[in-house]
Each structure stands twice: as structure tokens, then as C-alpha cells.
Design a protein that fits this description.
Elements: E1 7-12, H1 16-24, E2 31-37, H2 41-53, E3 60-61, H3 65-70, E4 76-79, H4 86-98, E5 106-109, H5 117-129, E6 138-139, E7 158-162, E8 167-169, H6 174-188, E9 200-205, E10 208-214, E11 221-228, E12 232-239, E13 242-249, H7 255-263, H8 270-273
Parallel strand pairs: 1-2, 1-4, 2-3, 4-5, 6-7
Antiparallel strand pairs: 7-8, 9-10, 10-13, 11-12, 12-13
Helix pairs in contact: 4-5
């Protein structure tokens, strides 16, 4: 396995996304932008020159993705290529690794992972075939720390344990980004406290909207407590008599009440929940 004090990263793709991340690299410690590949060699050279101008690493253009994997200076790849090419890119990566052309410590892929579920599942399969650990986000502990020393993650990318759900969750929304980022910052500054906030998420469409918290999984037992069918009410998601998620449909200002129900071990029945939140 390649190892060095500084992480060497290669970019697959040379457009807006790649350049955006290169620009952000000015705030990254202990990692360098070492390479970039694009099917258009001129674009790869231009992006490499841009990275060098930012002083984020000794970046150079490569003739292929496989050439980047062969280079021991590159420890990880970041796929920033167009959506329709990402599966093809990962196929080349997996093939190079399984054929012994080189090794990688990790791969990051710009969202969306793929254009559809079939492609996404294939991407996951290829990553596993290449011997890479695949998780739903960056795994952190209750202090937002990753397994790597002095490396923290927060917000959309982080998979964190929540004591009320006794499970790892990942919430890609505003509340989690704000609260978890502050928690990680406090820990890094020496104020070590576990992140136990249960973040909510929301959406609006014309005169309909919702706020939700916890685990909204259609495979769970559900109970809909409507004030007005399909216009206003609360949907509860339960497992073994415990509330694991609450959807507040056109019901506002009740997120804390929903959190309290999820924290309560119960047990709860549909009759016990009827009218509980209005």
C-alpha cells in the first residue's frame, strides 16, 4: 500500500468541478494535487497549470487514468468527470487495480454517483472489487473524528452514530451541515463533546411542504395521522414499538416534539400516537 506523510491526489476530469475543488485545496493540509487526466489533453494541461498556479501541489497532466494509478505519488483519485462517463472511469480504475497496475488508498466521486440506480450499484460493485472499503459517507465517531489521526468530517458527507436510533445516519441537509460543522470545530479546538443532535430536513412545493426527522424508511411500519387526508398531518415510522422517524406534512413548528418521540423508548401504538402531534 502506498503511504506518505502527505496525500497525493489525482483528478479525473478537468472542468468546473475539478477546478472548484483545486481552488478549495488552498485550505487543505497535508495533501497535494499531484495529477489530472482529461480525454482532451489540452484541458488536462490547462487544469494542471491552474493547480500549480494555486500552489496546491506539483500537478501534471497524465495520458490516462491508469497512468495516474501507476504513479506511486498518487494515493487517491477524485472523479469529477461528466455524469455519463463516471461508470467508464471507475471501470478503468478497477481494472487497473485488479490487474496490479497500482494501488489507491481511496476514491472520491462528485455527486451524483451515477445517472441511475443500476449504474450506481455497478459503481459500488467495482469499488469493492478493487479492494476499497465502501460506506455510506465518511465514517466518523461521536466526536466527528475519522479513523485517520487528526482528520474530521461533518455535514452531508459524514456518517455518524446516533444513540437514539442505535444506528449510523447520514443527513444531507442544512440543519446537519450547520450543527455538525460547529460540533467538529469545537472538538478540533479542544472542547471535546459528542455530537448527539438529531438533524431535521425539509422541502416545499407550492402550498405543500414538510419537515422530517429521524429514519423515514418505507420498509418500517407506518401510521398516518391526518388532520386533512394528504394535505395536513403526521406520518410516524415505527419498529418494535419505537418511533424511528416522523414526517410533519404541512404541520409546522413541531420538530422538537418529533425529536422527543424518537428519543422516547416507548413502546408506542398507533392509538397512542393519534393526535400526539398537531
Amino acid at each position: 500500500m502506498k503511504s506518505s506523510k502527505r496525500l497525493g491526489v489525482g483528478f479525473v476530469g478537468s472542468g468546473f468541478n475539478a477546478r472548484f475543488h483545486m481552488l478549495s485545496w488552498t485550505g487543505v493540509r497535508d495533501a497535494d494535487v499531484v495529477g489530472v487526466w482529461s480525454p482532451t489533453s489540452e484541458h488536462a494541461r490547462s487544469a494542471a497549470a491552474y493547480a500549480r498556479s494555486l500552489d496546491v501541489g506539483p500537478c501534471k497532466a497524465y495520458r490516462s487514468i491508469t497512468d495516474m494509478i501507476r504513479d506511486p505519488a498518487i494515493d487517491a483519485l477524485w472523479i469529477c468527470a461528466p455524469n455519463q462517463t463516471r461508470l467508464e472511469n471507475l471501470e478503468e480504475i478497477a481494472d487497473a487495480i485488479t490487474r496490479g497496475r497500482g494501488e489507491l488508498r481511496g476514491i472520491a466521486c462528485e455527486k451524483p454517483l451515477a445517472r441511475n440506480v443500476k449504474e450506481a450499484l455497478r459503481m459500488v460493485e467495482l469499488a469493492r472489487q478493487a479492494g476499497l472499503q465502501v460506506e455510506n459517507g465518511i465514517v466518523v465517531d461521536e466526536f466527528c473524528a475519522t479513523p485517520a489521526p487528526d482528520v474530521f468530517a461533518a455535514g452531508d458527507v459524514a456518517s455518524f452514530p446516533h444513540p437514539a436510533l442505535a444506528a449510523r445516519i447520514r443527513v444531507e441537509h442544512e440543519d446537519n451541515a450547520n450543527t455538525m460543522g460547529r460540533a467538529a470545530g469545537r472538538t478540533m479546538a479542544g472542547d471535546r463533546a459528542p455530537y448527539q443532535h438529531l438533524p431535521f430536513f425539509y422541502s416545499d412545493l407550492f402550498d405543500l411542504g414538510y419537515e422530517a426527522v429521524g429514519e423515514l424508511d418505507p420498509r418500517l411500519n407506518t401510521f398516518a395521522d391526518w388532520v386533512e387526508p394528504f394535505r395536513q398531518g403526521v406520518v410516524y415510522y415505527l419498529k418494535d414499538g419505537r418511533v424511528r422517524g416522523v414526517l410533519l406534512w404541512n404541520t409546522w413548528g413541531q420538530v422538537d416534539a418529533a425529536r422527543a418521540l424518537i428519543m422516547d423508548p416507548g413502546p408506542f401504538t398507533a392509538n397512542a400516537l393519534r393526535g400526539r402531534i398537531r
